[in-house]
Structure formats: structure tokens, C-alpha cells
Amino acid sequence: MRRFGRTMVSAALAVAVVGGTAGWASGDSQRAVTGPPPGTAAWRADTVSGRALPDPATATPHEVARFFAGLDGAARRELVRSHPLVVGNLDGAPLPLRYEANRIAIAATGEARYASLGAPDRRILAFDPRGRGQVAEVFGDLERAAHVSVIVPGSDNDATRHDARRGADSGPAGMARALRAAAGASTAVIAWTGYTTPVGVGLDAADGRLAEAGAVRLARFTAGLDAVGAPDPVLFCHSYGSVVCGLAARHTDATDIVAFGSPGMRAATAAGLHTGARVWAARGPSDWIADVPNVELGGIGHGADPTSAAFGARRVPASDVRGHTGYFVPGTQSLAAFAAIAAGELR
Length: 347
Fold this sequence. Notes:
The protein has 347 residues and is α/β, with parallel strands linked by helices. It is 33% helix and 14% strand.
């Protein structure tokens, strides 16, 4: 009975504590943005050269890639002009078309909070203005990269905070810039905030509802990379993002999955992720995530600590990491190891 009582207390603590980059803030319940992108109805009603367009809800990324391969340049450009939100978010569509479509879609919002994302030198691979907004940005040359990494962030991230003022090496864009600089020009890094993240600390951060929706989107996103010929990616999964990666693991072709500052991955062991990827884990000595109880009860909590010996992940050195977001600070052991993993030098 006492053991049951301790488990219930741990579960209650998980509800109160589990969170992401915001720390000890209250949480607001979020509605996951899912399904095909805005403008899909008009896209489905359209044709090109008498051919139906691939349904964003049902066509696989490889089917999308084959469709675009059969179009000439003029037809492609017309689809970008007519349906920028669909083309910009259509996994499997050619990368240059997605960049162009998202510049158009961002400008069309007329919203100052998104203006910086539309700069000509930025490679925005996905942009969805619904809800708090979702965005994916490429750092480096994804078309020619020998290696690809995807940053999957945790709580309190969205399209409006992608460019928010914060530590230079924190946040999805900051982490991506730091990793690309450390890994070298042959590596492209994608900052992927392609799911609805929890806000603050609350039930959203303690349960798996948003992570489950995010895992579906992450799996499709990585399939889209494969469809355009990109190398199999390394997934770098921070905080609640590691829950997303844990649920998506078996459905991606990732070579490596790196969980850091993780509350758990919804699996008891690395083998329980059912992935062929190498699984890595890191946690700094002052990361407050260590205070989160590693329990899962009735859907609350995210399970075993990925840095524990019993979990079976490969450990990433992180003894000099400060806090919950310091893993990409230049000069840290963690960033050096992350760069080696990203570049395929550490196995």
C-alpha cells in the first residue's frame, strides 16, 4: 500500500513539474493543430494539365515527389502562386518550391510577428499560421548536404517564438545555428517546430496527447526528407520534444536519436522504442528536469529516465552544461559530442 501511495505522489508531482523551456510557469491547455494545411480544399478542387493534385491528407511524400517530377517549371510555379500554404507544407515537394511558397505565405499573413521569417535569405521549409503557428527552417544547404539533423524542441516553442530574443544557443533556431556551426558545412540542420507544443507546466506537458499528434507529423516530415533524396536524419530531441521523438522513433528512418533534458520517452528502455537508430541521452548536472519523477500512470508522466543505465541509451557527456537549455553552448562537451554525432563521426 505504501508503494502505491508513493507512486500516486510521484504521478501528482509529474503533473506539477514536467515542462519545457519556460520552467516553473503555469500551463494552458493547447489544442493540437493537425491534418492537412490551410487551403487544402481549394487545392483539391484544382487540377494541372487535366491531372488531379495529390491529396495532402492521403498522398505519401513519395507520391508527392513523383507528381512534381512530372511537372514542367511553369506548372510548378503556378501551383506555388495559387496554393502557397499547401505547397510550402507539402512533404515530398521540391525544396526550392517550398522555400518560395513559404515566403509568399508568410508575406500574405500581413502579420508583423512573422515578418522576419519571410526574409529572402531564409530557407523556411514549413509554415502554418494556425493556432500559435508552426515553422521549420533549414540552416545550410539541404539539397547538397552529406548529413542532416533535425532539432525537435520542447514546450513554449512556436512560429512567433522562433525569432524571439533569448540565449543565442537556445530555442530551436539558436540550437540549429550552433549545431551547424560546430558540425561543419557538410551538415544541414533543420529547426523543426512542426507540432503544437505545451505552454508552461501543466497537464499538457505531463501527458502524451500533444506528443502523439507531434509524432505523426514528425514521422511524415522525415518521410518527406527521404522523398526528396536527403540523407537519413539525426534527431536531436529536447525536453518534451524527446517525448515526441520517442513516440515517432519506430516510424522514422533516423540514424540516431539524441534525447537531452528529457522527462522520458514513453518507453521503459531504448530497445522499447523499436527503432534501428542509435539512441543517445544527455542531462546536465543543474538541469531541473532531473527533479521530474520518471513515472507513467494513467497516461500521466513519460516513463523511464533515458540517462539511466537501465534505459540502455549511449551517454553523451554533459558535465559542463548549465541549466535546461545550455546543451548547445559553444565549448561544452555536449555540443562537441552532438556535432560528432551529426557529422557521422561518433557511433
